[in-house]
Specification:
With 385 residues, the chain is of the alpha/beta class. It is built from twelve helices and 18 strands. 36% of the residues lie in helices and 27% in strands. A hairpin with a 2-residue loop joins strand 8 and strand 9. This is FAD-dependent urate hydroxylase.
Length: 385
């Protein structure tokens, strides 16, 4: 079959790889003229890694991944370690290491694996037409693409979602702003093999190792949405938000490059169960936009891609039927992840100060088993075990 994919992000490219491996002809259309990843890095947990392993990319993704052997929480003001533990029990339980990876490197790897000649840039979707056994994508430049089915992997602002759903849901502001980027790893900020998170006042500062001797960093601050912002103000603002925090946090702020530091207002979308309409289906953020608080957004998109390819390969009652079976295998799993992330977001970022304080208090008693149990719960239920 000929399959049209709208969106060349992680979900769209992974779907392109999976569907080509299943013997389909794939064309990927992306509205932007140049692919630029959203965010500096991603926590690619074991379920996402397994999807890439399944698609024959085991060596490539391992080469991109940072060595994250330990995890620690640190009290933001005092700099005292609240808990530190090995992630080896997690690896042994689920059968695969997680890899923090730079988004640009991951997207380049996926682009090469999908095939650059399969990806068409500068093609903004404006309409979808279904004509019997075909579906047609209509683009702003007047061009058209015809296929047997169309996959909307066009992100949280999805145009395809508006075609699939009679009443598309609205994005919900999660109540906090995230700054993220990359810096050189340094022991005066955190150990180079550890995901370290400083917490306090409903805020977070995290550094985690990625390839190339670098840290991926992020700062979370509960703030109203829509505040004015200039990149040049990043360090000044962060110094204010984290005034009085421990020296490693101040060192990190000093070393960030404001011009390459991203600022993102965090949103999600209320889960919905309808992902398909005729020969059109949603995938990734278009189907289940989530906050990053459990690190499962990209991983869930990769799961979608694998299940979509499996469904088309194993069901023979027609394209609409296969797409519905894909939807029905994925929608509850994805909804659960969105709601878990929302719950974790509220606890972490002080929506209920008493709950947040109780979480802080529990970290001083944590031996790692409770946190690992939570991560495993997010990973379990994936299509590859």
């Amino acid at each position: 079959m000929k399959i049209i994919i709208i969106g060349a992000g992680m979900g769209g490219l992974t779907a392109g790889i999976a569907l080509q491996r299943a013997g389909h002809e794939v064309e990927v259309f992306e509205r932007v003229q140049e692919i630029r990843p959203v965010g500096a890095a991603i926590s690619l947990w074991s379920n996402g890694v397994k999807c890439l392993n399944y698609l024959g990319l085991e060596q490539q993704v391992a080469a991109l991944g940072g060595r994250m052997d330990f995890m620690a929480y640190v009290q933001g003001h005092s700099g005292k370690t609240m808990t530190r533990f090995s992630l080896e029990p997690l690896v042994q339980q689920v059968g695969q290491r997680p890899y923090p990876v730079v988004r640009a490197a991951l997207q380049e790897m996926l682009l090469q694996a999908c095939g650059r000649d399969r990806v068409h840039l500068g093609r903004a979707l404006v309409a979808i037409e279904e004509q019997g056994d075909e579906v047609v994508a209509v683009f702003a430049d007047g061009s058209r693409a015809t296929g047997d089915l169309l996959i909307g992997a066009d992100g949280t602002h999805s145009i395809v979602r508006s075609h699939v759903l009679e009443h598309p849901p609205q994005r919900r502001y999660a109540g906090y702003v995230n700054w993220n980027g990359l810096v050189q790893a340094s022991a005066d900020m955190a150990p180079a093999d550890q995901w370290t998170t400083f917490v306090g006042e409903g805020k977070r500062v995290s550094v985690m190792p990625v390839a190339g001797g670098r840290f991926y960093f992020f700062f979370d601050v509960p703030l109203p949405g829509g505040l004015p912002y200039e990149r040049a103000d990043a360090q000044r603002l962060l110094r204010g938000y984290f005034d009085g925090w421990a020296q490693p946090v101040q060192t990190l702020i000093d070393r960030i490059d404001p011009q390459t530091t991203n600022r993102v207002e965090i949103h999600d979308i209320e889960p919905f169960m309808t992902w398909t309409r005729g020969r059109v289906a949603l995938l990734g953020d278009a189907a289940h936009s989530t906050t990053p608080d459990i690190g499962q957004g990209g991983c869930a998109a990769m799961e979608d891609a694998v299940v979509l390819a499996m469904s088309l390969q194993t069901h023979t009652l027609g394209v609409p039927d296969a797409l519905r079976r894909y939807q029905n295998r994925r929608n509850q799993r994805a909804a659960d992840l969105v709601l878990r992330a929302r719950k974790r977001c509220d606890i972490t970022h002080g929506s209920d100060p008493a709950l947040t304080q109780a979480w802080y208090d529990s970290l001083w008693q944590e031996d790692g088993s409770g946190i690992i149990r939570g991560i495993v719960a997010n990973i379990e239920g994936n299509p590859l075990g």
